[in-house]
C-alpha cells in the first residue's frame, strides 16, 4: 500500500526508465505470496510452449491491432509527455497498432463494473495486494506463454516479479517496488543534540529518538505515523511483522485472522508508547500519506515511514533539504538481533483477459517496450542531465523492475555514477532490509479496519490493546475472510 504525489510519480517513472506509468497509490495488479510464488523462479514457470527464437507461424506486425493503454491522469503533465514519447516510438516499430489512451486508475470498487461492461483497458495498473483477488475473479489474463518467450525474463527482479506468479503461472509484470523504510531528518536531530541511532536499530532506539526531538509547544513531532486512511493500518503492520506476527493464515480452505496475537499486542502497545509515553507524534495525528510526508518535507517531524524515494524526492526537491540531511533506515527491529521487517509492495501492470490474443501480445510488448533497452538508458541519462540543469536531485527507487546484479542493473548504475545529483542510499541498508509481502486476501479491508483501531488508540488514553485487536479481528473475519474459499 503506497501513496504517490505527482512529483513522486514522475520520479518513479523515470526510475523505471520510462516504463508504462502507474497512476494510483500502490501500482498495478496481481499480488502477494500467491500460491507457490515465493518458490517459483521467473524462468521456470509452467506451460513453456515456445522460446524467443521460435519462428512465428504468421506475423502479428502485419495485422491491424488496437490496444487501449493505461495512461496517466491529466494532472501528471510531465509523465503524460513521457508516455506520449513512448507511444510515438512504439508505433514507429509497430505501425500496425492503434493506441487508445485511457486514464482510468485501478480501483477495487470499480474493477468489477469495468470488466462486466467490457470497458477495462487492454492493460491496467494495480497494486501488489490484489493478485489473488484479481486471479480468482478471472479479471487478469494468464500471460505465461508471453512471459516464457520474453528474452529478458532472467534479468527481472525476482523478489518483485514473484508476487505475480501464482501456482506457476504468470499474471502480471512488475514495474517497481518498495520495502517500507524510515526516513530520518538528521538536521532536526543535530539541532536538538539527539544522537543519530545505529542503522541496526530497535523500537527503543526509535522511541528515544522521537522523544528527544519532539517539541509539542513548537508543533514539532519526533515521528509521524500515519493516522487516517488505509495507510494508517499499513504503517502499523510493519511493527506487527517485526514482532513476528502475521495478518492471516490459511487453514482447512479458510482464511483465518491472526493479527490479534501477542505480536499484535506488542506492536499496538508500542504505538501507545509513542503517543502517550513519549508524546512524540503530531498533536494533529490524523495524517494520511501526503500529510505525513509533507510534515517531513517541512521539517515538522523528524521521522516518517514509507517507501523511501517519494519521501526523499519531496524533502530534497520541494523541502530544500540536502542529501546529507535525509537518512534512509530500515524499519527498526523489535529488539536487538531481530529482523528489520518492512512491508513489501509495488506497482504492476496486468492484461485484460477479455482482450484477443493479438491484443494481449501487443499489450505485453508495449508494457515491456522500454525495459532493458539502450533507449531506456538514454532516456534516464537525459532525465539526469535535465535534473542537473534544473538544480534538482534524482532519487532512484530501492527496488526496480530489474535485478540490481543483472547486466542491465550494472549498466544503470554506470549511468547513475556519472552524476553527483543522484541520491545515494547507505551501503549498509541493503544487508539489513527484510521484506515481507502483504497478505493474500482482503489486505485493504484489513488496513481500513486497523486504521480505526489506530485512531481510537491515538484519541483515547488507556485503551486495551488485546480487546481492540480481538474486536478488529472479529470484524475482519466475519465481514471479509469468512466469504473467501482459500486454496
TrEMBL record:
Coiled-coil regions listed in the entry: none
Keyword flag Ribonucleoprotein: no
Signal peptide per UniProt: 1-19
One Pfam family cited in the UniProt record for this chain: SBP_bac_1
InterPro entries: Bact_solute-bd_prot1, SBP
Highest taxon, organism lineage: Bacteria
Comp. bias regions, Low complexity: 39-54
Region (Disordered): 32-54
Record keywords: Signal
Record's protein name: ABC transporter substrate-binding protein
Source species of the chain: Paenibacillus etheri
Amino acid at each position: 500500500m503506497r501513496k504517490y504525489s505527482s512529483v513522486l510519480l514522475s520520479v518513479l517513472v523515470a526510475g523505471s526508465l520510462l516504463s508504462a506509468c502507474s497512476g494510483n497509490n500502490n501500482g498495478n495488479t496481481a499480488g502477494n505470496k500467491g500460491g507457490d510464488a515465493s518458490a517459483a523462479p521467473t524462468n521456470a514457470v509452467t506451460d513453456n510452449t515456445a522460446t524467443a527464437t521460435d519462428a512465428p507461424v504468421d506475423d502479428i506486425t502485419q495485422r491491424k491491432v488496437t490496444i487501449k493503454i493505461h495512461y496517466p491522469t491529466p494532472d501528471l503533465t510531465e509523465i503524460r509527455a513521457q508516455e506520449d514519447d513512448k507511444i510515438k516510438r512504439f508505433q514507429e516499430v509497430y505501425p500496425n497498432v492503434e493506441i487508445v489512451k485511457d486514464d482510468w486508475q485501478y480501483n477495487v470498487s470499480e474493477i468489477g463494473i469495468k470488466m462486466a461492461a467490457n470497458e477495462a483497458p487492454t492493460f491496467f495498473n494495480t497494486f501488489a495486494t490484489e493478485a489473488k483477488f484479481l486471479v480468482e475473479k478471472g479479471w487478469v489474463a494468464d500471460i505465461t506463454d508471453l512471459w516464457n518467450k520474453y528474452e529478458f525474463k532472467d534479468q527481472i527482479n525476482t523478489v518483485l516479479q514473484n508476487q505475480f506468479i501464482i501456482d506457476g503461472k504468470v499474471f502480471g509484470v512488475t514495474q517497481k517496488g518498495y520495502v517500507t523504510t524510515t526516513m530520518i531528518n538528521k538536521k532536526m536531530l543535530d539541532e536538538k543534540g539527539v544522537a543519530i541511532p545505529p542503522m541496526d536499530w530497535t523500537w527503543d532506539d526509535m522511541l528515544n529518538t522521537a522523544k528527544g526531538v519532539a517539541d509539542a509547544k513548537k508543533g514539532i513531532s519526533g515521528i509521524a505515523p500515519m493516522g487516517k486512511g488505509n495507510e494508517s493500518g499499513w504503517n502499523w503492520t510493519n511493527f506487527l511483522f517485526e514482532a513476528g506476527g502475521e495478518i492471516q493464515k490459511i487453514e482447512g480452505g479458510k482464511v483465518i485472522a491472526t493479527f490479534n496475537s501477542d505480536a499484535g499486542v506488542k506492536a499496538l502497545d508500542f504505538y501507545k508508547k509513542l503517543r502517550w509515553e513519549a508524546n512524540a507524534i503530531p498533536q494533529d495525528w490524523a495524517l494520511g500519506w501526503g500529510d505525513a510526508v509533507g510534515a517531513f518535507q517541512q521539517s515538522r517531524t523528524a521521522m516518517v515511514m514509507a517507501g523511501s524515494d517519494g519521501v526523499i524526492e519531496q524533502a530534497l526537491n520541494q523541502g530544500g533539504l540536502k542529501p546529507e540531511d535525509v537518512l534512509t533506515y530500515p524499519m527498526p527491529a523489535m529488539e536487538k538481533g531481530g529482523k528489520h521487517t518492512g512491508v513489501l509492495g509495488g506497482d504492476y501492470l496486468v492484461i485484460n483477459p477479455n482482450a484477443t490474443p493479438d491484443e494481449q501480445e501487443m499489450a505485453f510488448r508495449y508494457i515491456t517496450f522500454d525495459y532493458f533497452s539502450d533507449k531506456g538508458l538514454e532516456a534516464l541519462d537525459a532525465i539526469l542531465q535535465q535534473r542537473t540543469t534544473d538544480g534538482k536531485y534524482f532519487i532512484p527507487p530501492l527496488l526496480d523492475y530489474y535485478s540490481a546484479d543483472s547486466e542491465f542493473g550494472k549498466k544503470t548504475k554506470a549511468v547513475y555514477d556519472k552524476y553527483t545529483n543522484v541520491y545515494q542510499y547507505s551501503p549498509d541498508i541493503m544487508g539489513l532490509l527484510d521484506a515481507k509481502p502483504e497478505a493474500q486476501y482482503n489486505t485493504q479491508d484489513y488496513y481500513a479496519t486497523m486504521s480505526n483501531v489506530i485512531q481510537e488508540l491515538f484519541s483515547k488514553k488507556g485503551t486495551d490493546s488485546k480487546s481492540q485487536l480481538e474486536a478488529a479481528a472479529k470484524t475482519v473475519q466475519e465481514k471479509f475472510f469468512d466469504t473467501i474459499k482459500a486454496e
